[in-house]
Amino acid sequence: MIDDGHHRMLPGPFARPTPARQDQCHARLAGMALAFFGGGFLVLPWWTLAIVPLLLGLAVLLANERPPLPFPQRQDRWVMAVLLCYGLSWVIAGPWHGEGLRGLKDAWPVWLAVPILVALSRLRVSSAWLWGGFAAGSLATGGWAAWQGLVKGTSRANGHEPLHAILFGNLGLLAGLICLAGLGWALGRDRRLVWGLLLAAGGFSGLMVSALSGSRGGWVGLPLALWVLYRGYGPRLAARWQLAGVALLGVLLAALYVAPQTGVERRVDNAVDSLEQYLDGDQEMTSVSARLEMWKGAGHLIAERPLAGWGGRGYRQAMRDRGAAGLQDPALGRFWHAHNDLLDAWAKRGLPGLATLLALYLVPLWLFTRGLRGGSRERRALAMAGVLLPVAFLSFGLTYSFLAYPAGGLVYGLLLAILWGLYRQAPVA
């Protein structure tokens, strides 16, 4: 063979990757991490989400580019501060109440979001990976819920342990709302019809998951979430499109309500009947009356120890003591949380627990709401999703203690970090 100096060695398995191949590899790896989160947080065991920061960390090691923006900026510090302080409230409460480092199991899922913030500050990742992952995940979750409810005959669709019908249904609704938030981004894409239909189908699938799970707490917060979507996107649409969207959504919600397979009408009627019985003084214990009595009991415990709280074990023992003293139904002593995130945090971790939880809700609301006023379609869509996250969790937490579960904290923390990481580098115009 004559060596003319122009031939090139074919890349073998041990050839050193070029910078271009490295950039392509790390971008895809980071995108796959976001898609894995959106697609798997309900159809896979919750602990598998720990793979997300690992994949993003590996992408950072492979990256060969300068960070898009300086990090941390003032707003980044706010996000990290609320995550760290919220987890710290769990850790400090343990030794204070004689429970050792028990709070670490609730702190680490939220703290895991901080490495994601750092990783995304050094990566350029297309938000298409996130929207595509959520659409696929919502559709997969909807299919799973439909199989359980319509084929298998399960009374209420549920997911992997420790998820159950309430967590599964409300998180499924959250996935659908995130898909609806992405519709504004889809309208600016080249294949807007494909992306729009995919995300709209994901949004409907999330509504169906909520209906088949029978999780009434999500239905309480749904009007507020839909109002947020309307306030974000409605004013930018022509009047005829606003009316068409409202009409279509109304038809879909009505269909889910009246369809006997979903059980929505039955669950709503049961809730109304239970509330009427409780107000009439009926002593029969129902899911509604039990919640009202737990809230009342938690309120009494907060009044006794408003600053330091009772701790996890102390709360449960105090509720049992109230039952033994005839102050409430003894059966309520078997519940380990107050079925309300704000009351649960205050009763167990005192005023620091309540303050850090409120900050976990309000700081993202404050930061993302400003992004709804203008900017690119991508930026507004991410801001909309960022607003819906605390709004949804705050609504869900009115009737159930979502963040009392490590799985709830993991989903909230990781999604907050991902949305903020993408939002901070999204084009302003």
Largest sheet: none
Q: Strand content of the residues, in percent?
A: under 5%
User: Which structural class is indicated by helix and strand composition?
Assistant: mainly alpha
Compute the average pLDDT.
87
Number of strands: 0
End-to-end Cα distance, whole Å, is 56 Å
- What is the general shape? globular
* Unreliable residue runs: 1-20
Helix content: 55-70%
Subcellular location: Membrane
Membrane topology: Multi-pass membrane protein
GO molecular function, one term: ligase activity
Keywords: Ligase, Membrane, Transmembrane, Transmembrane helix
Would you write up a description of this structure?
This protein is mainly alpha-helical and 429 residues long. The protein has one domain (24-62, 69-268, 338-423). The protein contains 17 helices and no strands. Helix 3 runs antiparallel to helix 15. The longest helix is centred in the last third of the chain and has 29 residues, at 341-369. Mean pLDDT is 87; it is low at 1-20.
What's the structural blueprint in terms of helices and strands?
Elements: H1 19-40, H2 51-62, H3 74-96, H4 104-111, H5 113-120, H6 128-151, H7 165-181, H8 183-186, H9 192-213, H10 216-233, H11 239-258, H12 264-279, H13 287-304, H14 312-324, H15 341-369, H16 377-396, H17 406-423
